[in-house]
Write a structure and sequence with these properties.
alpha+beta; single chain; 88 residues
C-alpha cells in the first residue's frame, strides 16, 4: 500500500511539474502572469479546451499600459485561479 501511495505521489508531482501553466491555472487554481508584447493592447481572453486565446491589437500612441487580472469566481471557493496580463 505504501509503494502504491509513493508511486501515485511521484506521478502527481511529475505531472504538476510538466503540465502547462494554462492547465494548472484553469483546472487546479493558481496564478499565471503573461507579459504582452511591447505596443499591444489586450482586448479579450478566452479558453478553448486547455488553451488560452488572447486577442490583442496595436496600442494607440495616447493609450497607457494597463495590468488586467481575470479571476475565476467559484461557487465553492475551492479552485479559484487568476490570469494577469501586463501590457508593456
Amino acid at each position: 500500500m505504501l509503494k502504491l501511495f509513493l508511486l501515485l505521489s511521484l506521478v502527481g508531482v511529475l505531472f504538476t511539474l510538466t503540465s502547462c501553466k494554462n492547465f494548472r491555472a484553469k483546472n487546479w487554481g493558481g496564478n499565471v502572469t503573461y507579459k504582452l508584447n511591447v505596443g499591444e493592447k489586450l482586448l479579450n481572453v478566452s479558453w478553448k479546451d486547455e488553451d488560452l486565446w488572447v486577442l490583442t491589437r496595436k496600442r494607440l500612441p495616447n493609450e497607457k499600459c494597463d495590468t488586467l487580472i481575470y479571476r475565476e469566481e467559484s461557487n465553492k471557493s475551492i479552485r479559484e485561479g487568476s490570469v494577469t496580463f501586463i501590457e508593456r
